[in-house]
Design a protein that fits this description.
alpha+beta; Jelly Rolls; Arc Repressor Mutant, subunit A; 2 domains; 7-stranded antiparallel β-sheet; 3-stranded antiparallel β-sheet; 11 helices; AraC-like DNA-binding protein; sequence-specific DNA binding; AraC-bd; DNA-binding
Length: 263
């Protein structure tokens, strides 16, 4: 497993990744950013879509809106890819106004050489340390091309705002409590049984309560590590039992160690 990360000094909301994987490396997870990936070699399978697994081949570009649960793992043999994570509001500000609906609300797989070339160009610009103007110009060109491309796969789906509103107190506790909240107490707090709560959280977020909590903690860990916080301090502040536990959960979500991610 090889992973290399680069953050834009000019645009702190932009991060690029180059990776090579040979075995399953990701559990189902979601990002709080808009994500765009390009397959460089090999093939992979994306799970988490209600439409079933999506198979990606070299040259494919996939876009994943913030909050959409997915897991992308090698299909057979080595798999090499690049990922770009950007603030979703920043992406919306650069995308054509007519494109923000589909582009930022649905998982899309595009098989178009022009899109592949532009995605690679944006990743290369980030790794090369391009300035803000050059990076934004490349991103805008990519989003404009995506807006005109007919996706090979389109996985729509809007969150259930009413259900998320009812679950908000539970999700707040899952995110912020240092110790694991008792499932029964969480369910009682919003008038559900534990079984009803598990089903409701999965329906609203795509994850069980425990999996959602782990994902939320790893998203916060990534923010803290990007800011230069020590690994041990990050693990302690987020309530992990010890650094070993933190490493295992982090690797399952990010497919690399906290140290390699922090750089």
């Amino acid at each position: 497993m090889v992973a290399e990360f680069r953050r834009s000094a000019a645009l702190p909301q932009v991060e690029a990744r180059r990776s090579r994987q040979e075995r399953d490396c990701y559990r189902p997870h979601a990002h709080d950013d808009f994500s765009l990936g390009v397959i460089e070699a090999g093939s992979s399978v994306v799970t988490g879509s209600p439409d079933g697994p999506l198979r990606l081949a070299a040259g494919d570009v996939i876009t994943i809106p913030a909050g959409r649960v997915h897991a992308c793992n090698p299909d057979t043999g080595p798999w090499r890819y690049q990922m770009i994570h950007v603030d979703q509001e920043w992406a919306a500000s650069l995308a054509p106004p007519t494109a923000t609906g589909d582009l930022l609300a649905a998982i899309r797989v595009v098989r178009r050489p022009e899109v592949t070339a532009l995605a690679r160009g944006l990743a290369e610009a980030i790794f090369a340390g391009a300035d803000r103007e050059a990076t934004e110009a490349r991103a805008a060109a990519l989003f404009a091309e995506l807006a005109t491309a007919t996706p090979a796969h389109l996985v729509a789906g809007e969150p259930d705002a009413e259900l998320l509103g009812r679950l908000a107190p539970v999700l707040r506790r899952l995110r912020s409590d240092r110790a694991n909240p008792a499932l029964g107490a969480l369910a009682d707090s919003i008038g559900m049984t534990p079984y009803q709560l598990i089903r409701a959280v999965r329906r609203a977020t795509g994850l069980t309560p425990l999996a959602w909590r782990q994902n939320a903690r790893i998203l916060q860990a990534r923010r803290m590590l990007r800011a230069g916080r020590p690994i041990a301090e990050t693990a302690h502040e987020l309530g992990f039992v010890d650094q070993s536990h933190f490493h295992r959960v982090f690797r399952a979500h990010v497919a690399t160690s906290p140290g390699a991610y922090r750089g």
